[in-house]
Amino acid sequence: MPDWPALRSLMPSNVRIGTAVDGRVLATDARYRAVLGRDFNAATAENAMKWSQLQPTPGTYVWQVSDDLVAFAEENGLAMYGHTLVWHSSVPSWVSESWSAEELGELLRQHVTAVVSRYRGKIWAWDVVNEVLDEDGSLRDTIWLRKLGPDYIADAFRWAHAADPDARLFINDYGTEGRTRKADGLLRLVSKLRASGVPIHGVGFQSHLQWDKAPVEVAGNLRRFADRGLSVAITELDVRIQLPVTPERLARQAMLYEQMLAACLAVSTCESFTLWGFTDARSWIPYNYPGYGAACLFDSEMKPKLAHSALVDALREDRTGAPGG
């Protein structure tokens, strides 16, 4: 067994510590499974529950990878976070914008209902809509906005709630963890949705960070959402380092991880703190940010890095009531 402190054993009981999980690696890598089950008490499907993965051809769902992930979570005491029901980047290739608004709206309703219903009672929260905003805080131009208008967002939440009334329903986006124009737009959007009676329970802040660029006023930003009666969650945290890796960059990375955890713990409605993958061996960063890497808590050999130690130290301080928690 690994000899480092398990993060899940140190987290406050009201905050889950989670990670995105690669379902295919889960099925083949025993060491990956061991660290996942030991360090975390929550899991998010990295890709397995995205629409394009679940329904690559019309009329047929492929559930095996997502089913296996949910089963692993149940067997190992991990709360399952569903990701994601509506996202412009995971629309199956067979869906055509030439179809009528009525056809597309019904297709979207059927998809949301089918997925949430299948995992009813097994998934504690869903990212219902993902990345619906542009950088200026306005609604992103997507197939759903063009064809269905802005009401598709409210509709998706209502459909998800009808399919599983007990699931927590989140809106999720990037570039909103600090005080930005996009965060301002997100606050306006969720406030409007809530005022209209839409069953939106929380906001997910992705938090894909760079080692030398700290977001501004994270705790204060999260708190203004909490003040509106919303739960908040750090949903996709990673901190990419410009290569080559150096001790200074690892130290800066560790500081950012700790600062994000501290911000979550400082806000009473923060329900979960989730990493976007936990090992550099399986990180999405090198493929999407050329020249960057080493973004996770564990290195490519599955050994904990300085960032892991920083989280352990912060959680121990929080438990004892010492400053800095």
UniProtKB/TrEMBL annotation:
E.C. code: 3.2.1.8
Alphabetical keyword list: Carbohydrate metabolism, Glycosidase, Hydrolase, Polysaccharide degradation, Signal, Xylan degradation
Catalytic class of the enzyme: hydrolase
Pfam families: Glyco_hydro_10 (PF00331)
Domain GH10: 1-314
Top-level taxon in the UniProt lineage: Bacteria
Catalytic activity as recorded in UniProt: Endohydrolysis of (1->4)-beta-D-xylosidic linkages in xylans
Signal peptide: none
Stated family: Belongs to the glycosyl hydrolase 10 (cellulase F) family.
Protein name: Beta-xylanase
Species name: Micromonospora sonneratiae
